[in-house]
Amino acid sequence: MSVDGPGIFQSDTAHDVRSEFRERLSKGQSAGEASMIMAAEWAPANDPNDRTDFWIALAASQVELGQLQVEIKDRVLRIIESGEDLHRWAPPAMARKRELVLASLARKLSGLQKAPSLPRRRLEIPPLQWKPGAIYTYRLRDESLCLLRSLEIAEFQGSEPPVVELLQWEGWAVPEPVDFDHLGIMRASRFHPLKFIVFSASLREYKGALKRLCLAGQSTDYRRSTTRCTVQPTTWGKIDGEISSWFGIGGV
Q1: Among 49, 61, 35, residue whose Cα is nearest residue 2
Q2: Does the pTM exceed 0.85?
């Protein structure tokens, strides 16, 4: 088990427990049903540290959503009171930090609980093939076109935003044929290319972007750049302004 710190969810086990619990609730299972299934899968772990991590993380996950079960609360309070979770934390300063974290959790378990809630459902994005090397025309707010080349799909908190770069072309219609492999990359400065990682703030925002995106072709000589570059996070609602600000095109 990998542990990054004394926080409740700073171990691989605790992180996975929290993610699975929230995922099960988002799919319609009750807290009791989800916890029972997870306990059957996780609790028999050979590593006692994994077992304590499981129960502590499960209780903390339930508290976050106002779904705390009495039997889970009682079990975890006993674990905290016994100190059995603290023996693995060294040096003493780290054990003290963990002790404070668990004391805070104990107060939350024993205190007034928040109203029950469900985790936010993951944004369901209509499919678009952001395959590496794919070239898309993107219609800017002034109705001109630019060319976006897909580089990769990133992973960020359950979403999969594309990473794209702009090719050195702008116009009102893409002439045919186009040799995309011989188009250069637009640069944010004299030296460094710029890549965008484009998030979807809402389903409505992304659907609006889909209306302005069109697959134009494939870069056959595609390869991931290993040179130094600037990576700019943005959203589909803001990318027009970013393109205008960085490159002076689009009229926004």
Answers
A1: 49
A2: no
